[in-house]
Write a structure and sequence with these properties.
It is built from 8 helices and 7 strands, in the order ααβαβαββαββαβαα. The chain has 239 residues and is of the alpha/beta class. Strands 3-2-1-4-5-7-6 form a 7-stranded mixed β-sheet, with helices on both faces. Helix 3 crosses helix 8 and helix 5 packs across helix 6. It is globular.
Length: 239
Amino acid sequence: MNEQFLRTAMLLGEDAVTRLQNARVAVFGIGGVGGYTVEALARSGIGQLDLIDSDTVSVSNINRQILATHSTVGMPKVEAAKARVLDINPECCVRTHQVFYTPETAHLFDFSEYDYIVDAIDTVTGKLALVQRAVEANTPIICCMGTGNKLDASAFQVADISRTSMCPLARIMRKELGKRGIKHLKVVYSQEEALSPTGWEEEAAALGKRQIPGSVAFVPGAAGLILAGEVIRDLARNS
C-alpha cells in the first residue's frame, strides 16, 4: 500500500483504494465548488481526472477558490488545477478541457468513459445537458445547486432532487428534468435563504450582468467537499 493513501485505506479498505485508483471522474466547473471537489478527489487517490472549464483565474476568485492565488491569476483554471493535482499525486492521469459546457459542446464528451460525473457549473442549460447525457450513458452524476449569496456552510445536505425545498435552482432543475422524464438526481443543496446584496449594480452592469452573487471562502468549499465525499463513498462501495 502506497503510504500516501494509507490513512484512507484504514477507513475504506485496500480494495476500495484500488477501486479509486482505477476510477475516472469528470468534474465540470473548476471554480469555488469544483476546485475543492478536485482537491479532495486527488487527495483520495482517484486515478484519472477530467477537468472541464473555459475560464481563467481572476483576482476576484482569490477570496473563495482554492486554485486562485496571485501566482495563478491569468492561468486557465483547468491548467492550474492540473498542476495542483499532479503535485498532490504525480501518478494521476489528468485530462484538461478548456471548454464552456453547453448543449452545443456536449458532443465533445463521451460520458460512457467516466465512472462518475460531478456537475459544478452555473448555467441551467448546461446542468440539464449534463444530467441528460449522464442518464443516457448510465453514468452516475451528482450536481451542486446554488451556493451564491449564502453564509451557512453547515446548511448543505445531500438529497434526491425530488426531495429538495427552498432552493430556487433545485426547483427549476426539478421542473425541467421532469419535462425530460428524469425524476431522480443526487444533489447537494442548501435550504438557507439567499441574501440579496445591494449597492453593486454598477459593477454588475459593467460586466454585462443583472447581478453579481456574493460569496465567501467557506460556503462553496463546503459544498465541493460534500460532492467529493459522495463520489468517493459511492465508488468505494462499488465492486
